[in-house]
Amino acid sequence: GMFYGCTALTLPPALPATTLADFCYSAMFSGCTALTSPPALPATTLASGCYASMFYGCAALTSAPVLPATTLASYCYTDMFHRCTALTSPPALPATTLANHCYTYMFARCEALVSVPALPATTLANQCYLYMFYECTSLKISSDQTETYQYAWRIPTSGTATTAPSWNTNMLSGTGGTFTDDPD
Q1: Quick one: pLDDT at residue 155?
Q2: Distance of alpha carbon 100 from alpha carbon 7, whole angstroms
Q3: What is the pLDDT, as a whole number, of residue 151?
Q4: 150-175: per-residue pLDDT in tens?
Q5: CA end-to-end span of the chain, whole Å?
Q6: What pLDDT, in 10s, does the model give residues 76-119?
Q7: Sequential DSSP letters for 144-184
Q8: What mean pLDDT do residues 44-72 have?
Q9: CA 148 to chain CA centroid, nearest Å
Q10: Are 23 and 52 a contacting pair, CB within 8 Å?
């Protein structure tokens, strides 16, 4: 929570660390309502809770940082962009093996979000996608391409997945399309 609630902060400091500790950047910019662009986040191996709530409520944030991590930890991205109401597109999420709660509420209430990332993970973990796109009201999801839905989306992007308990609970609840159930 280093800059928690700094409502005048518009540009973040550089964060070049590639080795992270548990909860190290948690809530760092939470409530920084004037923050317009994120810092680079070069780490490829994450620690538990390291980016949790990092940009929570950053209402002016219009772009997400590149997230190159391929080794995730429990709760690492939980609530990372929750209530980033100006964010229209998410970053790529390249990990193929997920951790418990890793993407829980990651984009919840991102009301301007109109696209979703490809989700290539084939090893899913307990509640890994729990409420991931909760109340993203501009988001419309379909497994088929139609006039209304510009592309078909599936989990995983290709192949089949090994699932875990409750991996998909309320993942698409409150989105704007006709499909708002838990995905298969």
Answers
A1: 86
A2: 32
A3: 63
A4: 666 788 888 889 999 899 999 999 99
A5: 36
A6: 999 999 999 999 999 999 999 999 999 999 999 999 999 899 99
A7: S--SSSSS---SSSSS--B--TTTTTTTTTT-SSS--S---
A8: 97
A9: 24
A10: yes
The answer to whether residues 134 and 106 touch, using CB atoms and an 8 Å cutoff, is no
CA 70-32-61 angle, to 5 degrees, is 60
Q: What is the C-alpha R_g of the chain?
A: 16
Share in percent of the chain as helix, strand, coil (round to 5) = 0, 5, 95
CA-to-CA distance for 77 and 172, rounded, in angstroms?
17
Amino acid letter, 50:
C
* CB neighbours of residue 22 within 10 Å: 15
Is the CB of residue 177 less than 8 Å from the CB of residue 169? no
Task: Locate 46 and state its tokens.
Answer: 């994450």
